[in-house]
Design goal:
Largest sheet: 7 strands, antiparallel
Oligomer: single chain
Order of helices and strands: EHEHEEEEHEHHEEEHEEHEEE
């Protein structure tokens, strides 16, 4: 692992991106920071990523793709010279330059082989090249859309994928995109295409919303039993006007685990297997001070989620 010593991060990035030598494509990533002897808090991790991003964006402009894996951020700048990657290595944040076509083919192969125990598969969803990716320009969209894991083979594997994704979003969104929120819907084709929405908000919240417009009216026969069943499966409250059930958890690993268990438990209750599920309405929006949503920030892909879409 090559170290950056005291060379400014922006200068390293600019040289790799704009004037790469042939040998740079073969070199190990350049470590940008000294390894920490103790685990960093979420705030410290976000601060280091934000500082590195600011330094690079001051030289190169906004990234082409934001995103991350189970290990940390994976942010990319693409040009005719190649793809510059800022990601998390075993020793900390690192920079590397790659020939774009080779990097894309290598990663697509990893995604298509999926997660499992065979020799050619990665062991967990956290080991995939990235779990989420926001494409800020049209460049690179085809490569990302081709990078998708097969559907999870069972419910525990699907829960692992949802947990990994939500933990990554909780940890990485604020540093990379500031006041932005992510949303997407699970679509249950075995249950009349019922939607179960998932939201990750910058206001310290992970939320699930389940469409129950076909549920018994409040006070009608069968409603009390229905409500008891929903509460027993972990839902927090019913929103009568919208006729949706909701549950909210704090950002972070514990909240991600709790929400993943709730979401997969509900989907499992209503369908035969992960193969019955799809995704819709993937979005990343700026969240305004007043609480409303601003414009979409780009095209969101979730290639590390074990769902066909």
């Amino acid at each position: 692992m090559e170290r950056a010593h005291r060379t400014p991060i922006g200068e390293i990035a600019e040289k790799l991106y704009q004037q790469p030598a042939a040998a740079d494509y073969e070199k190990a990533p350049i470590l940008l920071e000294e390894p920490s002897s103790t685990p960093l808090s979420a705030e410290n991790r976000a601060s280091r990523v934000r500082a590195a991003l600011n330094a690079i964006e001051d030289r190169l402009g906004p990234a082409t793709q934001y995103g991350g894996s189970g290990r940390g951020p994976s942010v990319r700048w693409k040009s005719a010279n190649g793809t510059l990657v800022l990601d998390q290595g075993s020793g900390g944040l690192q920079l590397s330059i790659h020939i774009s076509d080779e990097l894309d083919r290598r990663e697509v192969t990893i995604f298509r082989q999926g997660v499992g125990t065979s020799p050619h598969q990665v062991a967990t969803y956290d080991d995939l090249p990235y779990l989420w990716q926001l494409n800020r320009t049209e460049s690179g969209a085809a490569e990302i859309s081709a990078a998708q894991t097969p559907p999870a083979s069972d419910w525990p594997l699907l829960e692992q994928s949802v947990r990994s994704l939500l933990a990554a979003l909780s940890d990485q969104l604020p540093a990379q995109l500031g006041a932005a929120g992510v949303g997407f819907n699970f679509v249950n084709h075995a249950d009349g295409d019922r939607t179960l929405g998932v939201l990750c908000s910058p206001d310290d919240e992970l939320m699930a919303l389940l469409d129950t417009t076909d549920s018994p009216d409040q006070g009608s026969p069968g409603h009390a039993e229905y409500e008891s069943g929903m509460l027993s499966r972990g839902w927090h409250s019913w929103i009568p006007v919208a006729r949706w059930w909701e549950a909210s958890f704090p950002l972070g690993v514990e909240g991600a685990s709790a929400l993943a268990a709730l979401v997969v438990g509900e989907l499992r209750h209503r369908s035969a297997g992960p193969i019955d599920l799809g995704l819709s309405d993937l979005s990343v929006n700026e969240v305004l001070d007043a609480g409303g949503l601003g414009p979409e920030l780009g095209q969101l892909f979730l290639p590390g989620l074990g769902i066909n879409y």
